[in-house]
TrEMBL record:
Recorded GO MF terms: metal ion binding; nucleotidase activity
Source organism: Brassica campestris (Field mustard)
Homology family: Belongs to the SurE nucleotidase family.
Pfam families noted in UniProt: SurE
InterPro entries xref list: SurE (IPR030048), SurE-like_Pase/nucleotidase (IPR002828), SurE-like_sf (IPR036523)
Protein name, as recorded: Survival protein SurE-like phosphatase/nucleotidase domain-containing protein
Disordered, as annotated region: 19-44
Keywords associated with the record: Hydrolase, Metal-binding
Coiled coil spans: none
């Protein structure tokens, strides 16, 4: 294992040896499935607070894939089974995996109670960052600062520049902004190769590191100026160990596909459009300028002509609507630096990358951290 130019503390990384020996341990995390009770929606301004009589450290879990995703459920079940933590969940109601650091100001956010055995859970009609901001605000829970925020387990890699798109990484970043230690965890999911049981294996890989992180936080030795992004290889149970890495410049390529006008979005998008229209009407009501509101209304009344997206629109006085769909496409890239996150991941290692809110860490801090990490990793070899 190698490291350089990273911000992990020696005390934290020394626990990686325990992780290596336990990584095949897995999590039994088997909880009986129960019929979830009807959820109850509450608005943000009505606090859903409960008395906390549990002295165990509080862990707040979120993700980008949505509260029902197998990655989050598997992680929460394992944390609950540990019996060491008071587990709370505040996660998006729907998939927000590429929402980045977006928030939803000026709109009412609904938080509905969700049934995850052993945890206090809410699903939120907002982004991952909304969830963390709300969860840490004191408005939803009776506390405002858990010992640790964990965002994941995300389905798909968040290495390199994918971090800037990732809702999961953004959730951990929002916690760091708020002064709370955080981890973001992703599984390098591959279509036609990965399976749902891989998430339970991924939990078994990262759970000892989570425990080590919380122990170091309680000891006051966990670094306060960085979050850790953990990338788990496609076959978690056969990983080659942990490697402290640097963020690469890798990313999947965005591919915009033109969609024919006769293949318009379905009912789900139709409802979304109706909500957007409602938001527009609400904006009209809030518009202080009667003239501005009149101009907006007139613009909305103009006829809209739908055309084939694959063609070039002819000149017209009418507004034109075209349809497109975005997909991210993986591309083969050669990575030669062994310390890059994507290289370690492709080679079968569990990549651990420290992330800072600063564009670049202080050189002296980098050098000291690298020395501490190297000594810790080589101590028992």
């Amino acid at each position: 294992m190698t490291s350089k130019n990273n911000g992990l503390s020696a005390a934290l990384v020394s626990n990686l040896q325990d992780v290596l020996s336990k990584r095949k341990g897995g999590s039994d995390g088997s909880a009986e499935e129960e019929e979830p009770p009807p959820s109850t929606s509450v608005s943000v301004d009505v606090a859903a607070k409960e008395e906390i009589d549990d002295s165990r450290p509080i862990v707040l879990v979120t993700n980008g894939d949505g509260i029902d995703s197998i990655g989050l459920v598997s992680l929460v079940e394992a944390l609950v089974s540990e019996g060491l933590y008071n587990v709370h969940v505040c996660a998006p109601q729907t998939d927000k995996s590429v929402s980045s650091h977006s928030m939803t100001p000026g709109e009412t956010i609904a938080a509905s109670s969700a049934d995850i055995k052993g945890a206090t859970a809410f699903e939120v009609s907002g982004t991952t960052v909304d969830c963390i901001s709300l969860g840490l605000s004191g408005a939803l829970f009776a506390w405002s600062k858990p010992i640790l925020v964990i965002s994941g387990i995300n389905q798909g890699s968040s290495c390199g520049h994918q971090m800037f798109y990732s809702g999961a990484v953004a959730g951990a970043r929002e916690a760091l902004i708020s002064g709370v230690p955080s981890l973001s965890i992703s599984l390098n999911w591959k279509k036609d190769e990965s399976k749902e049981s891989d998430f339970k294996d991924a939990v078994g890989v990262c759970l000892p590191l989570i425990n080590a992180t919380i122990r170091d936080i309680e000891k006051g030795v966990f670094p306060k100026d960085c979050s850790l992004n953990i990338e788990i290889p496609t076959s978690p149970s056969s990983n080659k160990g942990f490697k402290v890495t640097k963020q690469s410049m890798w990313r999947q390529s965005p591919s915009w596909q033109a969609v024919s006008a006769n293949r318009r979005p379905g009912a789900g998008n139709f409802m979304s459009n109706q909500q957007s229209l409602g938001a527009q009407l609400a904006q009209l009501g809030r518009d202080a300028s009667a003239a501005g509101a009149a101009r907006r209304f007139t613009t909305q009344k103009k006829s809209i002509v739908e055309i084939e997206s694959v063609g070039v629109a002819a000149k017209t006085d009418s507004r034109v609507k075209k349809y497109f769909r975005l997909e991210f496409v993986g591309k083969e890239q050669e990575h030669t630096d062994e310390d890059l996150d994507i290289k370690a991941l492709e080679d079968g290692f569990v990549s651990v990358t420290p992330l800072s809110l600063l564009p670049k860490m202080d050189p002296e801090t980098q050098a000291a951290a690298s020395e501490w990490i190297s000594k810790a990793l080589n101590a028992d070899q």
